[in-house]
Structure formats: structure tokens, C-alpha cells
Amino acid sequence: MINVAEPVSTPRQVAQRLPAVLCRVADMTSRVRRAAERHAVLTVTGPGCDASLLDRLVRSYNDTAPPRPARAIVGTPEDQLERLRSGRADIARG
Fold it and tell me: How far is CA 73 from the centre of its chain?
């Protein structure tokens, strides 16, 4: 993780850190926008080998008429982590 409060002494150091900082800002913006949605869907992600289990879990949850319905998304462990970091997923089943 990058400490944005850390002093930077050269323009080169600023340029090296800028892409990572911009990526974090974009991720935070995405999470805030998603949280502000009136009818946001709870997104649960899991590995492909658990697709049927994940589907049953989400269907069972949605059968209870929750305030935020859920949806399941299957992906690789790397994809799950990226979805969590960017705010495109709320829960990951590892």
C-alpha cells in the first residue's frame, strides 16, 4: 500500500507513484458510488468450482426478501480480490 502522506522529494518519485494513487482513488470512487445507489445489489463472488453452492446461497438469501437482493459472480481468486478492492463485490467466498 502507498502512503500518500509520505514526503516525496523529486518529480520522478511523484511520477512513479501517481498510477497507483490514481488507481486507489478510482477504486474508492467506485465504492462510494455503489454504496450511494438506492437499490444497490449485494454482490457475492466465489471461485468457479463453487458456482452451484454460491448460486444456492444467493437464491436462499433472496428468497427471504432482503432489503438488498444479492447476485452471484464467479471468478478466479485474483478476479475476486480485484472486485473487492474496486467495490464491484461486497463479499468473496474463498
Answer: 12
* Mutual angle of helices 11-36 and 77-86, in 10-degree steps: 80
Count of C-beta atoms within a 10 Å radius of residue 35: 10
Question: How far is Cα 19 from Cα 13, in angstroms, rounded to an integer?
Answer: 11
Rounded to whole angstroms, the Cα distance separating 70 from 43 reads: 6
Residue by residue, pLDDT tens for the chain (94 residues) are: 556 566 666 888 878 888 888 887 777 777 777 666 666 788 888 887 778 888 898 999 999 988 888 999 888 888 888 888 888 888 887 6
- 91, 75 contact by CB (below 8 A): no
Cβ 20 vs Cβ 3: under 8 Å: no
Helix (H) or strand (E) holding 74: strand 70-74
CA dihedral 42, 55, 92, 37 (to 10 degrees): -10
